Amino acid sequence: MPHSDNIDSHQEPRFGGRLFHRTEHGNARWSRRSKVALAVVGALLAGSGAYAATNWTVGLAGGSSGEAQSATVSNLTITAVATPAASNVLYPGGNGDVVLTISNPNAFPVSVTAVNLPTSTTYAAGYTTSSLATAQTGCSSATSDVIWNYSTGVSGSSHSLTSTLVVAASGQPNNPLTVTLTNDASMTAAAPAACENTWFSMPSLTAVSASGGAATVTTSPATDAWTS
Fold first, then answer.
1. 39 and 114 share one domain
2. Run of H or E including 181
3. pLDDT by residue (tens digit) across 89-104?
4. Which of 38, 176, 187, 215 has CA atoms 20 to 30 A from the CA of 26?
5. How confident is the model over 132-171, as pLDDT tens digits?
6. Is 120 found in the same domain as 178?
7. Which 3 state secondary structure label does DSSP give 172?
8. 160 lies in a domain?
9. Is residue 66 situated within a structural domain?
10. 5 Cβ partners below 8 Å, 6+ apart?
11. Closest listed residue to residue 135, CA positions, set 200, 53, 188, 38
12. Domain for residue 55, yes or no?
């Protein structure tokens, strides 16, 4: 029988060892495995193109910027408090502790380094209890002879604290900051007997030396003082 080069219509063609299938119309098609492999390769090529660097360099327009805003600055508030109780109490010719809180309404910490005092003839007012609600008879701001220690005859004298007090920003822990000022009140030897067993509202400070900005906050309650 003569040799025939024709392919049997029922035989699947092979090209280069790869198997094809005919469609019902007689056209050859890739096997399912080959089509899946090509789809995966195509996906990889497409992904590589998405992240490839290009030669199109993008610069920055002159004057490009953003907007920021600084905080407003508000004054501190210093308030007399009874807790913790003073360890050193006043007597004629002696010194005693002053307990107070410092409140900071600012959005940043404030560091206090010094206080400015009224004159040495500006006296504290006496009260019957630590609530400072009822005045002590005979022990007023005109007669008590209780003053800030180291105050002078000049109003506004500045006195440096031994340690900087850093009051936390508004709404943060340690604000208000409770501080005991050790032995920074003084009772002269001329204080009247009516000032025995009395609580005192110290004269208002004339100013403080303070600055705002990032700093390590002082833990409340704290102890500090000026010594000259």
1. no
2. strand 177-187
3. 999 999 999 999 999 9
4. 38
5. 999 999 999 999 999 999 999 999 999 999 999 999 999 9
6. yes
7. coil
8. yes
9. no
10. none
11. 200
12. no
- 24: phi > 0 → left, psi -120 to 50 → alpha, else beta; which? alpha
Structural domain total, the chain: 2
Instruction: Count Cβ atoms below 10 Å from residue 50 Cβ, excluding itself.
Output: 6
Write the DSSP assignment of 36-89 as a string of letters: HHHHHHHHHHHHHHHH---S------TT------PPP----EEEE--SSPPSS-
99 and 28: one domain? Answer: no
Residue 35 lies in domain: 14-49
Distance between CA atoms of 133 and 158, rounded to whole angstroms? 30
Instruction: Tell me the two tokens of residue 113.
Output: 């380094």
Q: Which residues of 136-145 are buried (b: 16+ CB within 10 A; e: fewer)?
A: beebbeebbb
pTM, rounded to two decimals: 0.74
Domain annotation covers residue 64: no
Q: What is the three-class DSSP state of 94?
A: coil
